[in-house]
Design goal:
Distance between the termini: 10 Å
Strand order of the largest sheet: 3-2-1-4-5-6-7
Number of strands: 13
Helix content: 40-55%
Mean pLDDT: 93
Shape: globular
CATH class of the largest domain: Alpha Beta
CATH architecture of the largest domain: 3-Layer(aba) Sandwich
Number of domains: 2
Strand content: 15-25%
Radius of gyration: 21 Å
Number of helices: 16
Low-confidence stretches: none
Order of helices and strands: EHEHEHEHEHEHHEEHEHEHEHEHHEHHH
Structural class: alpha/beta
Length: 365
C-alpha cells in the first residue's frame, strides 16, 4: 500500500484543520496515512489521534502582517522542523508528502528533493503580506511540487501563472444533512467565527441595532480578542456568545437558527465553511461581497447574489438585506431549497472524495 505523510502546521483547530481530518479520512480508504503535527498535547493531536502521528516543535507566527519576530521564528522553525522531519523520513518510506500548511513548505521541499518524494500542496489561506506571498510562490514552483490544490479560485490568484498550470480548485466538502425546512425567517441569526475584529461581528451588531424588530443573535466561536468582545457587549442587542462549538450544524438546528451572516472584513477568507455548512441544512446566508464568499455565491447561486451578498463593512446595507429576506417568505424558501441542492450536487463529501482520490491516483499509482 502506498504511504502518504500529511504535514500540518497549526496546533489549534480552524477550518483548515477540520479539512485535514476530512482529507485523512478520505485518503485512508486507499492509502496508508501518517501525519506530521506541531506539538503533542493539543487540539490538533486530539483531532487526529486515530492516525499515526509524528510530533515536532514549532513557534507560531503572527496572524496577518508579519513582524520582525516572525522572521526570526521562521529561521528557528526551518532548522528545527528540518531536523525532526528528516528523522521521520529516515526511519520511514513515503510515496507522497501532502502539505496542509505552507509554513513547512521550504523544509519539505528540501528533504523531498533529497529523497525524490513528490509533494502536493493544499492552499487554504490568502497571504496578505506580499513578501510571504512571493516566498510561498517561489517554493511552489519547485519541480517536486507536482500539484497545487486551492480551496477556491480566489486562493489561487496569489500564485504565478506557471504555478497555476499545475493547480486546481478543490472546494472544501460539507456533510449533506437533511433540509430542516424552516418555513420562514424566525429572526434568530448566527455569526460563526472567532471573536476578533477581522471577522466583522460588529457590523452585524450595528445592523441589528438599527432594525426595529426583535432579532436574537448568536455568536459562535472562541473569544480571541477580549477588548473587541467587550466592545460588542456594549451594544444593546439580544445576543448569546456560545464559545467554540464542535458541531456547528447540530447547534444551528437545535437553536432553530434561520439565518447565518458572514460579515468578514478580511481577505483571509478564501472559503467560508460557515456558509456551506449552513447551506447543507437549507439555512440561507448573507455574506460579505468579496473574496471566497463572493466566489461561492457567484459560482453556484448567481441569481440570488443581490439577496445573499452585501458590501464590505456596510452595516446599513446588511440591515436592509436581513430585513428583506426575513420579510419575504417566498424568496426565503427559494434560497433555502437552492442552497441545499448546491451542496448535494457540488460540495458534498462524496464529490470531494471522488475528485481527491482521482487526483492522487494520477500522481502516485
Amino acid at each position: 500500500m502506498k504511504r502518504i505523510l500529511i504535514l500540518e502546521g497549526r496546533e489549534t483547530i480552524g477550518g483548515g484543520q477540520i479539512i485535514t481530518k476530512c482529507i485523512c479520512d478520505v485518503l485512508s480508504k486507499k492509502y496508508d496515512i501518517a501525519i506530521f503535527v506541531p506539538g503533542s498535547n493539543n487540539d490538533i493531536s486530539n483531532l487526529l489521534s486515530g492516525y499515526q502521528l509524528y510530533h515536532y516543535n514549532l513557534k507560531q507566527y503572527t496572524r496577518g502582517r508579519k513582524t520582525l519576530k516572525d522572521y526570526f521564528n521562521l529561521i528557528f522553525n526551518i532548522y528545527h522542523t528540518s531536523v525532526q522531519l528528516n528523522e521521520v523520513l529516515k526511519k520511514n518510506t513515503f510515496d507522497l508528502l501532502y502539505i496542509q500548511h505552507q509554513n513547512i513548505l521550504p523544509v519539505a521541499i528540501l528533504l523531498a528533493k533529497r529523497r525524490k518524494i513528490k509533494i502536493i500542496s493544499h492552499l487554504h489561506v490568502f497571504y496578505i503580506d506580499r513578501i510571504v506571498r512571493l516566498f510561498v510562490d517561489y517554493f511552489l514552483n519547485s519541480a517536486v511540487v507536482v500539484r497545487i490544490f486551492g480551496v477556491s479560485n480566489y486562493t489561487l490568484t496569489q500564485i504565478s501563472l506557471k504555478n497555476k498550470k499545475k493547480s486546481c480548485v478543490l472546494y472544501n466538502p460539507v456533510f449533506l444533512r437533511e433540509n430542516i425546512h424552516i418555513e420562514d425567517c424566525n429572526k434568530r441569526i448566527a455569526v460563526v467565527g472567532d471573536v476578533i475584529r477581522s471577522k466583522g461581528q460588529h457590523i452585524v451588531f450595528e445592523s441589528i441595532k438599527s432594525l426595529s424588530d426583535n432579532y436574537e443573535l448568536y455568536i459562535i466561536g472562541n473569544i480571541i480578542d477580549r477588548d473587541y468582545y467587550n466592545e460588542l457587549l456594549a451594544y444593546s442587542v439580544n445576543c448569546h456568545f456560545t464559545g467554540l462549538i464542535s458541531d456547528v450544524p447540530d447547534f444551528l438546528v437545535k437553536a432553530k437558527i434561520s439565518l447565518v451572516v458572514i460579515p468578514s472584513i478580511s481577505p483571509f477568507e478564501t472559503f467560508s465553511l460557515a456558509m456551506t455548512e449552513s447551506w447543507s441544512l437549507g439555512i440561507p446566508t448573507i455574506a460579505t461581497n468579496a473574496w471566497g464568499m463572493k466566489e461561492l455565491v457567484y459560482t453556484f447561486l448567481h441569481e440570488y447574489r443581490e439577496s445573499m451578498l452585501f458590501s464590505v463593512g456596510d452595516s446599513d446595507e446588511l440591515a436592509k438585506k436581513i430585513s428583506n429576506l426575513c420579510s419575504n417568505n417566498i424568496l426565503y424558501k427559494k434560497i433555502s431549497i437552492a442552497i441545499h441542492q448546491i451542496v448535494s450536487e457540488f460540495l458534498s463529501k462524496d464529490q470531494f472524495e471522488r475528485k481527491m482520490l482521482h487526483e492522487i491516483a494520477q500522481i502516485i499509482n
